[in-house]
Design a protein that fits this description.
Organism: Streptomyces dengpaensis
Number of helices: 6
Strand content: under 5%
Distance between the termini: 29 Å
Radius of gyration: 12 Å
Number of strands: 0
Shape: globular
Oligomer: single chain
Protein name: Transcriptional regulator
Largest sheet: none
Number of domains: 1
């Protein structure tokens, strides 16, 4: 999936954000919360820059699962950032 994401052009930013969120979700299911948080943070940053509320919502939908790992590196920062974007 990472290779496919890397191949997306700048005009496909929403698609990239969606794929990053799917990838973060997969990392969470695989028990990799640090990588999931880093990937979701990339998606959230991109979604915020391009003003893509649906993509922000997709990242926000990961919050309940991420909350289980609130004390894991990167996760607490992402949760804080999600609260800040409202």
């Amino acid at each position: 999936m990472e290779e496919g994401i890397a191949l997306l052009t700048a005009t496909r930013s929403k698609t990239k954000s969606v794929f990053l969120t799917y990838q973060a979700e997969t990392y969470l299911r695989d028990g990799e919360p640090e990588i999931a948080a880093a990937t979701a943070t990339r998606s959230l940053g991109l979604a915020s820059r391009i003003d893509a509320p649906r993509c922000v919502t997709m990242v926000r939908d990961l919050e309940p699962e991420l909350s289980r790992y609130a004390h894991t590196a990167g996760v607490s920062e992402l949760l804080e950032r999600l609260r800040a974007v409202g």
